[in-house]
Amino acid sequence: DGGITQSPKYLFRKEGQNVTLSCEQNLNHDAMYWYRQDPGQGLRLIYYSQIVNDFQKGDIAEGYSVSREKKESFPLTVTSAQKNPTAFYLCASAQTSSGNTIYFGEGSWLTVV
Amino acid sequence: GIQVEQSPPDLILQEGANSTLRCNFSDSVNNLQWFHQNPWGQLINLFYIPSGTKQNGRLSATTVATERYSLLYISSSQTTDSGVYFCAVNTGGFKTIFGAGTRLFVKA
């Protein structure tokens, strides 16, 4: 099936540890995105990537890092510098040739204790 | 940057009722999408509708690009319609901006 796969779905980490969230897509989309959602809130853009080996900061990039070594993969690392990392993280992808219609993975719940 | 405002923020309906959700945006857009976030957090694409009207079953959407708003209509609501409805816009670049959402609860 075509789609966007995020893993793990649930993750618990101790404060001060880095954690990496995986995002893989087999839709052959050029653009990929990471959003953060806090309880009861909307989506905020962390990072996005238009092509391989290129990515841009979104609105809340501090404390996060990404890489785009392959078209289908866009992992997000939540570093110890992120002050409030507990949140729901959503990965998305879009094909720019079709109006940038965006599709989402199922999300990853990160809890830092 | 572009501002996206959704109303109402919260909505409670009796099963079977109809509703209209609104999305206002502050600048021209080349893409507008409506999403439904279910209670498990998954975001489901409802419509890609930069202009005009589309229908899919009990749901329909209309975007009036010249007046910078979009409406999502839900008819004969069901409990499974509960969740959060997001409007998202793109102004031609790679950034898609989301509204704060409308939280819908449909009572049985």
Secondary-structure blueprint of this entry?
The complex is a heterodimer of chains A (113) and B (108).
Chain A: E1 4-7, E2 10-13, E3 19-25, E4 31-37, E5 43-51, E6 54-57, E7 64-66, E8 76-78, E9 87-95, E10 101-104, E11 108-112
Chain B: E1 4-7, E2 10-14, E3 19-25, E4 31-37, E5 43-48, E6 52-56, E7 59-64, E8 69-74, E9 83-90, E10 96-98, E11 102-107
Parallel strand pairs in B: 2-11
Antiparallel strand pairs in B: 1-3, 3-8, 4-5, 4-9, 6-7, 7-8, 9-10, 9-11
Distance, first to last CA of chain B: 41 Å
Structural category of chain B: mainly beta
Shape of chain A: globular
Largest interface: A-B, 27 and 23 residues
On the 0-100 scale, what is the average pLDDT of chain A? 92
Number of H/I helices of chain B? 0
Tell me the radius of gyration of chain A. Answer: 13 Å
Mean pLDDT of chain B: 94
Q: What global shape of chain B is seen?
A: globular
Distance between the termini of chain A: 35 Å
Helix content of chain A: under 10%
Q: Main beta sheet of chain A, described?
A: 7 strands, mixed
Oligomer: heterodimer
Give an overview of the whole structure.
The complex is a heterodimer of chains A (113) and B (108). Chain A is mainly β and 113 residues long. Helix content of chain A is 0%, strand content 52%. In chain A, a hairpin with a 5-residue loop joins strand 4 and strand 5. The mean pLDDT of chain A is 92. Chain B has 108 residues and is mainly β. In chain B, strands 2, 4, 5, 9, 10 and 11 form a 6-stranded mixed sheet that branches. In chain B, strands 1-3-8-7-6 form a 5-stranded antiparallel sheet, with no helix packed on it. The model of chain B has no long low-confidence stretch (mean pLDDT 94). Classes of the chains: A mainly beta (113), B mainly beta (108).
